[in-house]
Amino acid sequence: MRSSVPTRKEKSRQVRMAYLVSHPIQYQAPLLRRIAKEPDIDLTVFFGSDFSVKGYKDEGFGGVGIKWDVPLLEGYKHHFLPVLRDHARVTPTTPMNYGIASRLRDCGDGTPYDALWVHGYASVNALHAITAANALGIPVLVRAESWLGDRERSAAKLAAKKLFFRTLSQMIDGVLPIGTLNSEYWSYYLGEHVPQFLVPYAVDNEYFQQRSTEAAPRRGELRRELALSPDRPVILFASKLQRRKRADDLLEAYKQLSPAPGQEPHPYLVIVGDGEQREQLERAARQTGFSSIRFCGFRNQSELPRFFDIATVFVLPSRHEPWGLIVNEVMNAGRAVIVSDEVGCQSDLITDGVEGAVFPAGSVEGLADALRRTLVTPETAAEMGRKGLERINRWSFEEDVRGFRQALAAVTKKIAAS
What we know:
Elements: H1 8-13, E1 15-21, H2 29-36, E2 41-47, H3 51-54, E3 56-58, E4 64-66, E5 77-80, E6 83-85, E7 96-97, H4 100-105, E8 115-119, H5 124-136, E9 140-143, H6 155-168, E10 174-175, H7 180-190, H8 205-215, H9 219-225, E11 234-238, H10 247-255, E12 268-272, H11 278-288, E13 293-295, H12 304-310, E14 313-316, H13 325-331, E15 336-340, H14 346-349, E16 356-359, H15 364-374, H16 378-392, H17 397-412
Parallel strand pairs: 1-2, 1-8, 2-5, 8-9, 9-10, 11-12, 11-14, 12-13, 14-15, 15-16
Antiparallel strand pairs: 3-4, 6-7
């Protein structure tokens, strides 16, 4: 049997890519494992912090202690950089590390890496790495989540941002857009001369489809646990209970589904997650007098497919949502999805009336209408879910690898694009 360890000749043909990111991220770990399987890409990941591995309190989830129950560090080479500042959260100035330049200078044989991939561009670490790579002659690829509609800024801030990007555009060799809106963002700020290579924001489709399949035989258990009658549809929300996620809009829209004053809607509303708005939302739910609303608290990533399985439709009504990877996950369960037009993935994954519905962010009436259209018959939601599964199967890690290969082929000239 042939050894899986590359020979010296094979190593000489590999592209040695360094990746700098703030901390191990549950969504990224399976992608890093997939890239590491490419025989001609030698990937090394440099983390600024290990807080997500040790466990931490996430303020977005209301200070709930978080320790992810999926492997974050398996299947790829990685190193934790020495720390100057680490507050167990991500800001422009934390984590802050040293030794980035020395690591980029020597990938193990005394020579620099062939390429640097940086997640984000506005942190001290990212700018440190980009500057060091430029000094060493290492091509730089940047990936980030931003889009033009993500938030309002003053004229002065916009002018400063354009000046910043004018400088940045001279220091990078390409960007890796995660989808349509992100690509438009890069074009606006960097111009058309900076190459773009689509590396779509994807999840481990195989994992979520398998977990959803495994959940189906136990569907009755979760329904009994939540006291849900099997003959009523389920509207599911699963995210942080913070203001920009707009779970309060969903609750108000749900109330509009009541067939008559004092009568509860036919569907159930199941809310999974925790955060700053939980107490307010629970109080508002009690005031409706409905017995059809369930709050399930924070659930870890491996638990979510059980909730996707009982859902008829999933709703993400956020404002200023850069992407919404939870939508990818739900689509792998073959469920209809309703999103606001400020959820970044909408342009690429959800067409109104096909995989689900799209409504204007902040419009309770628009959301209520989207719910009615999706739930008009059981067959309507089921067909939307089937269409969503077909679409998400074309938005996967394989497309990511294809994008990376195209980028590395262009900036290093060492490997083929496919």
